[in-house]
Amino acid sequence: MSLWQRSLQQLQLILRLNSLRNFVSLFLVGMFLSVAVAACSGGNQTLENGKPKNVEFTLVSFIVTRDAYKAIIPKFIEKWQQEHNQNVTISQSYGASGSQTRAVIDGLPADVVHLALGLDTERIEKAGLIKPGWQREFPNNGIVSQSVAALVTRAGNPKNINTWADLQKDGIRMVTADPKTSGVARWNFVALWNSAMINNQDEGEATEFVRKIYKNVPALTKDAREATDAFLKQGQGDALINYENEIILAQQKGLKVNYTIPDVNISIDNPIAIVDQNVDKHRNREVVAGFVQYLFSSEAQVEFAKVGFRPVNKEVYQTQEFIKKYPQVKTLAKIQDLGGWDVVQKKFFADGGIFDQIQSRNR
């Protein structure tokens, strides 16, 4: 073999070795990148059935449900992981029902909304984000939590306030939220109006009855939680109207609260609905629907009941613990008895409606 032939063989050997090293190097780099990408994109992992390992969605609700969800959400996440082998992350947003509604319509990417009143859910429906018929997707026409209006007074009740009618007396200072911003406050207004109608007053008399009561409100708060804080923590006012659940929760947090549930009352129904446009976009309908369905279970309803909501699950409501905690109201009206939310909104809370007329006269 000539010198140039040996040189050629050595050169070919070097090239093969280099190629092998390059191949190994590229393989190792590839492996590294694969591991790195996998580590950085945990949300893209999939299960054997092709479903994502990690799923997430956003819950938007009114402020007073927050304590219930503190207990409910961890239980649902654990249950879903055990049954579906998926890790669930739930982003949460709480605030006044009306404000939350506007935020969702303006682009807050809610996948599920639990609001203070059906009117707010219907507004999101009218914006095209929720499909018509959402009330029939889940049990109890989508009503997942309930309460009634409570009348709270100072210790010893020094102003002798025992009924809705007592709130119109001269010298009484009442605390409640603004019906223009708070769903709870609309329920309060409707409870007062309903009590007047039950007592056989005509609409003129009922308007005057409610006007006198709102004349005794020095300033309306933004939402129910702010009203509770103003009365219980800041010592404002002689009486407070708020959700029964909000008052029970305040007691559980160590505040001394003197309250009654008036015999004539309104069933405060809080609906839940899937925001169809967003879940279709986020491709998370299965877990969102599973979450909503779970909220009607005995396990979740017990948690709602613990923080003051009246259970919508009859099995839970009929337990001795909750029958005693939530005695039945003698005369309990539904919003449908007043014509439904479309009628109530237009009549009382639309610009120029009865509430605006009352406020104008009281200025």
From TrEMBL:
<dbReference type="Pfam" id="PF13531">
    <property type="entry name" value="SBP_bac_11"/>
</dbReference>
<protein>
    <submittedName>
        <fullName>Sulfate ABC transporter substrate-binding protein</fullName>
    </submittedName>
</protein>
<keyword id="KW-0732">Signal</keyword>
<keyword id="KW-0813">Transport</keyword>
<comment type="similarity">
    <text>Belongs to the prokaryotic sulfate-binding protein family.</text>
</comment>
<keyword id="KW-0574">Periplasm</keyword>
<dbReference type="InterPro" id="IPR005669">
    <property type="entry name" value="Thiosulph/SO4-bd"/>
</dbReference>
